[in-house]
Amino acid sequence: MFDIQEELKKIPQKPGVYIMHDKRDAIIYIGKAVSLRNRVRQYFRPSHNEGLKKEQMVKQIERFEYIITDSELEALILECNLIKEHRPKYNTMLRDDKTYPYIRVTLGEAFPRVLFSRQMKKDKSRYFGPYTSAGAVKDTIELIDKIYALRTCSRTLPKDIGKERPCLNYHIHQCMAPCQGYISEEEYRRKIGRAMEFLNGNYQPVLKELEEKMQTASENMNFEKAIEYRELLKAVKQIAQKQKITSSDGEDKDIIAMASDAEDAVVQVFFIRDGKLIGRDHFHVSVGSEDTRPQVLATFLKQFYAGTPFIPRELMLQEEIEEVKVIEEWLSQKRGQKVYVRVPKKGTKEKLVELAAQNAGMVLSQDKEKIKREEGRTIGALKEIGRLLDLEDLKRVEAYDISNISGFESVGSMIVYEKGKPKRSDYRKFKLRTVTGPDDYGSMYEVLTRRFSHGMREQEELKERNMEQQYGSFTRFPDLIMMDGGKGQVNVALRVLEELKLQIPVCGMVKDDNHRTRGLYYHNQEIPIDRHSEGFKLITRIQDEAHRFAIEFHRSLRSKEQVHSVLDDIPGIGAVRRKALMKRFLSLDAIREADVETLAELPSMNEQSAKAVYEFFHRPSVEEE
After folding, report:
1. Number of Cβ atoms within 10 Å of the Cβ of 197
2. CA 392, chain centre distance (Å)
3. Which residues have C-beta within 8 Å of that of residue 110, sequence separation ≥ 6?
């Protein structure tokens, strides 16, 4: 058994990373320290206070481990890697995990190509970016290929020269066909050089060249070609206008600022490459009430730059952070050159940081409103249902429905809503095994019995193997069962739960004569609901989703089985008798209401077949109480 107090005495006074585990042995927190002994022991001192979040975390610690490093920098790198891998519950987490596109020029090839790339590798290629818009990158590559007639194929050149015919791009004048030897390697390289100048932001030569070509084509009465050059000219100008000069030094910088409230923070990043603002992006960060702004910014830097291949020369921050020297050293190692983390106090840089902060505040405000509306539709609606039924802490709801057409191939559906949202990975379908014909109560009895018996077996197996409960679709039971129907369906569910010795609240979703939801049936009474409330809308969504899922499953089975009648399932009823029954009674309901004598009157029927039909439609099922 792990004795925390004894283990605390063994911790060395060295730099490293500490890892906290809970009783399930899950990692709940990862941190780094200059002195592991001093830092880890702080958590378990009664007088020590790091806020409510850390206090809750400490209560759950069952054991801890640590990894010793030679320096604080090594500890920082290891901490970043472990947090990214395990995403512990109590670490301040960067929620977004985005990769940014690059433009890759394959200079390692004899005839280079301009390609889209999500990674910047250590190869012979030249990379431009990162960019924030994949669409803009693709548009730029397409434009460059058109202007400079570069190849887009993957042929190995010059090895494959002349082996195959030139592709369509050559015939439409968008490639000079190096695959045929129609352009020399030197001339092609000159074109690639001009393309890279374009990517570096030098648009004037190509603008001038296209303008001249357009004028020449127009003077030669080649208006079709003139229009083509005009469109290219327009596209280049649009690309050029997107690049806004923010400084004259031509450096790579990231401008980073944040806005926060008690629970959330948004970090805004402006990406400046070669002195041009190429884009911006924002990131949501989960924070605790005790997390300071410098701590959140430092955490963001570590997590964001641990996962991006490009490190700019300079990071401009909104305010001073702790560990700035060790973070600078870490980033410099990753970049291979010195990286500076600074807080500008005046001038253009300070105004850019202020602009980033304003953008972060705007995003946080807008997203808060959006989240608030979404929570009203989901968690808020679920709480409203809980208040109606006098149930607390509703999280997981399961709803069931039965679908059949003329009694054929009855199927059951189980849908799951968690925190007011559908959890489709936990949906399940049931093809009825013991029930034939139009017996909704019997069908529901089978579905519920199979569902909860299965879950109980899985739970027992996990206990026998000393494993924690896995919250799958069957092992985890709902906080509320919602039946598609009223008293009869509710009583079926209550009977199953009683037989299995389970205690789970059950309510029915009652519909009016127009098949629209009107209320809930619970504890032998119907509870009316305000039709304009979010709770009512959620009930309607759950009911419709259960019905949709069952119908969808039934359709898939019908498409396999084609046409089938419930009468085919009655022993002794073949095609002739089935046809006679339908011709005489017109509907299954009429057949169900007929007695044995009436059924036997048909010429093709005898007393034995008439009894078989009658007994099929009058088998005992689960009765309403």
Report:
1. 14
2. 29
3. 157, 158, 185
pLDDT at 292: 86
Those residues with Cβ within 8 angstroms of residue 505's Cβ, 6 or more apart along the chain or in another chain: 389, 391, 479, 480, 481, 522
**How far apart (Å, rounded) are the C-alpha atoms in residues 370 and 364?**
10
What's the half-sphere exposure (Cβ side, CA atoms, 13 Å) at 2? Answer: 13
What is the distance between the alpha carbons of residues 259 and 497, in angstroms, rounded to a whole number? 50
Q: How many CB atoms lie within 10 A of CB 31?
A: 21
What digits encode the pLDDT tens for the residues 134-164?
777 787 888 888 888 899 898 888 888 888 8
Cβ atoms 505, 481 nearer than 8 A: yes
Domains and CATH numbers, the chain: 4-91 (3.40.1440.10), 102-201 (no CATH), 253-375 (3.30.420.10), 383-561 (3.30.420.340), 566-617 (1.10.150.20)
Query: What is the distance between the alpha carbons of residues 238 and 247, in angstroms, rounded to a whole number?
Result: 21
3-class DSSP state for residue 469?
A: coil
Please say whether the beta carbons of 157 and 110 come within 8 A. yes
Confirm if 328 and 340 have CB atoms less than 8 A apart.
Answer: yes
The pair phi, psi for residue 130, each rounded to 5°, is -75, 155
- How many other C-beta atoms can be found within 10 angstroms of the C-beta atom of residue 73? 19
Q: Among 318, 313, 314, 315, which Cα is nearest to 350's? A: 318
Q: Return phi, psi of residue 328, to 5°.
A: -60, -45
Quick check: helix, strand or coil at residue 219? helix
3-state secondary structure (DSSP) of residue 547:
helix
Q: What are phi and psi of 469, to 5 degrees?
A: -60, 130
Buried b (16+ CB within 10 A) or exposed e, 234-273: ebbeebeeeeeebbeeeebbbbbbbbbeeebbbbbbbbbb
Q: How far apart (Å, rounded) are the C-alpha atoms in residues 168 and 253?
A: 42
Q: Can you tell me the distance from the alpha carbon of 27 to that of 21, in angstroms, rounded to the nearest whole number?
A: 5
Q: What is the per-residue pLDDT across 57-73, written as a single tens digit (0 to 9) for each?
A: 888 999 998 888 888 88
Segments of the chain with pLDDT less than 50: 242-248, 471, 559-564, 621-625
Token output for 208: 């001038």
